[in-house]
Every structure is written in C-alpha cells, then in structure tokens.
Amino acid sequence: ALIGVFAAIIAVGVDVLSLFIYDYRVQLCETTPGSLPRYLVWLGSGALTALGAATLLKVVPAAAGSGLPEVKMALSGIVLFESLSTPTVLFKPLSLAFAIASSLSIGKEGPFIHCACCVAFLLVNSGWISFSSLVREQRELEALIAACAAGVVCTFGAPIGGVLFSIEIT
C-alpha cells in the first residue's frame, strides 16, 4: 500500500508541476504581441525548459532514460544501487515534469515505473520494515514487482493492466 501511495504522490506531483510550467509558457506567449515574436517565445521557452530537464539529468545521470532496463535488471537479481537511490527518485520526476512541459514527445510509463521501483527499494531497505536476512531478497523482489504494477496504474489508471504488466515483466 505504501508503494502505491508514494507512486501516486510522485505521479500527481509530476502532472501538476508539468501543467503549471506549461500554463506559464502559454501565458507568456499570450502576452507577447505579434505572431513571429510569439512563435519565438514559444520555441525559446520550450528549449529553455528542455535544457532545464537535461541539466537536472547531468546532476544525477542514473535518472536519465526510461528506467525500464534498470528495473528489468533489478528483477533479474542485478541491482544497480545508484539507479534505485534517493537522488534518482528526487531528480527523475523533476526532469520528467520539465521535459513534458517543454512539449517533448516522451512517455511517462517507464519513468513512473522506475520511480515506483526506487520507492519500493528504499522502503524495503529503509529499516521501517524489518525482515530477516533469509527473506529480505524475496521481499525486495515482491516489492519491485508490486512497484511495476503501481507505475503502470499511475500512468494509465488501469489496475488490471498493471497486474498483467508486472506478470509479463518478471
């Protein structure tokens, strides 16, 4: 339940922030007189927002990309700890919001799944929940599978699709 709640908070945060930035770009263009200056302001603000997303990814390179290859590696037993770290779960949603607001043609499914898996990995290894050393790896795998389903649900709002995707990815 905690994985789903945190994944939903991240998804809503990305949607709200990207909508806020996009609306600001639209208002900036509407207040610009003339069609050519308005077009240049639109292109410039989009380029500046995309540059902001790229700059955020330079700070944490593990947050770049869709994140699905890293998730599939973690599900197969090879965990890249920097790809499931706290900076990744903080910077990936921010850069995703900037990229969406800049009108880049990107999808949200992979990044939402990656963020949900980061949350699951951090929750299992945080110490809030104590597992014996014998079952920690199994619980971590179960949490990552549940996080894959939560990421799909946050993207599409389709719980059955999330379950089917988590079965397919394992």
Structure description:
With 170 residues, the chain is mainly α. It has helices at 2-30, 35-59, 68-75, 86-101, 109-124, 136-156, 159-169. The longest helix is centred in the first third of the chain and has 29 residues, at 2-30. The protein is elongated, with a radius of gyration of 18 Å.
Helix residue percentage: over 70%
Strand percentage = under 5%
What overall geometry do the principal axes of the alpha carbons give? Answer: elongated
User: Total number of helical segments?
Assistant: 7
Largest sheet: none
Distance between the termini: 20 Å
Mean pLDDT: 87
| Parts with pLDDT < 50 across at least 5 consecutive residues | none
Order of helical and strand elements = HHHHHHH
Structural class: mainly alpha
Query: What Rg, in angstroms, do the CA atoms define?
Result: 18 Å
Number of strands: 0
Write the layout of secondary structure elements.
Layout: H1 2-30, H2 35-59, H3 68-75, H4 86-101, H5 109-124, H6 136-156, H7 159-169
Brief sketch in words of this structure:
By secondary structure, this protein is an all-alpha fold. It has helices at 2-30, 35-59, 68-75, 86-101, 109-124, 136-156, 159-169.
